C-alpha cells in the first residue's frame, strides 16, 4: 500500500523544509544546532500540518541519526525501551514524540535520564501550549519552539514541488492545475500543508485524463476534494481578502446587516480559523477600550465556535458580530502602542532611569540602582510624582482617550486627574 503524498514528500534535510524559516533558515536556531552538531531535545508546538514532523525528519536526515516516531498517548513504555536500547547501540536516536503533552508519569520517568544523557534527542510535537500542558520536568530539559501556519506561497511552492517530483510525488501524472485551483487549494487549507497535499493527491488520482491526455485540475475539483467552496470565482483572485476586509470594515462602521452578510460568505466558504482570528483582532483593534467586556465575550464565542465546528459555529459567531457592531468603538489602544513603537523604531528610547532599575542584587546600591524610588502605594491615591520615562523622551504622550463608551470615559477622567497632579494641582478631581 502506497503511503500518502504528505508522508512521501517529507523533507530529507533542512533545505527541503517548507516555511518555518524563523527556525530552520540560514543562521536560525535549529539550523545552527544541526550545523554545530549540538542538538538538544526540543518541543515544537503549533497547528496541525505546519511542519513539526517534517522538521524532526529533516533534522534526522541532516545529521544521519536514526529517526523513530512514537505517540505519547498510544505507544507504551515498552516502545520507549526499544528506542532506548537502539540508542545504546547506535549512539544517538532522534525520537519524534507526537502528542507529547499526553506523556504520563511512568513514561516521563523512564525518558528523563535518557534525555539528560543525550542518548535520546526527543522532539516533542504538540498542538497545545507547552507552557500550560507540558510537565515542568520535561519542559526544563527541552527548548520550546513555536511552529507557525504556512503562508499561501509556502503551500503553493510545496504543491508545485509535489507535482514535479517523479520519485516521491505526482510527477508521473500529466497534471495541469488551473491557477484558481492552485490558489484555492493553498488558501482553503488554512496553512495546513498535510491537508493541501492530501487534497491534491485525491484530485489527481480521482480525475480521468481528457482527450489531450491531461489530468486537468479545475477550481470545482479542488472545491470538492477539500470540501471548501471558494468565496467567489473572481477574475483576479482577490475576493478572499476583499471579503475579510469588508467584514472588518462593516463591523468598524457599525453596519450589522453588512457584517452578517460578509460573515455568511466566510461561513459558506468554511473559513472558521480566519473568522475567529479576525474577530479577535476586531475586538481589540476597533472596539478596544470603548467596551472591554466585548473582547472577553469575543474570546468566549470564538472558543465555542471552535469546539462546535460548522454548522453550529455560525450561532456564536453571529451573536458576537452583532455585539461588536453595536458596541462603542475606540482605537485608542492600537494608536497608542503604534505611536510608542514608532518612537522606538526611530531610536527614541534612552536609558531606564536609575531609580527604576532592578536593585535586587549585590552591588546594585553602589551603582545607584533603585535609589530614590518612591513606592506609590505609600502615598494618597497610590500615586506619587516621579519620572518613569527615559530622559530622552520624558515628556512623550502616546495615549489619547476617546470618549465613546463609559469605560473609556472613566479612564479619561483618571488620566486627566493624573495629568493635573503632575502639574501640581493637588486637589484635582
UniProtKB/TrEMBL annotation:
Residue span, AAA+ ATPase domain: 38-150
Gene Ontology BP term (one): DNA-templated DNA replication
Annotated keywords: ATP-binding, Nucleotide-binding
Any Pfam family hit: AAA
GO function terms (MF aspect): ATP binding; ATP hydrolysis activity; DNA binding; enzyme activator activity; single-stranded DNA helicase activity
Membrane-crossing segments per the record: none
Keyword field contains Mitochondrion: no
Keyword Hydrolase assigned: no
Gene3D superfamilies xrefs: 1.10.8.60, 1.20.272.10, DNA polymerase III clamp loader subunits, C-terminal domain, P-loop containing nucleotide triphosphate hydrolases
Similarity-based family: Belongs to the AAA ATPase family. RarA/MGS1/WRNIP1 subfamily.
Protein name: Replication-associated recombination protein A
Organism: Enterococcus caccae ATCC BAA-1240
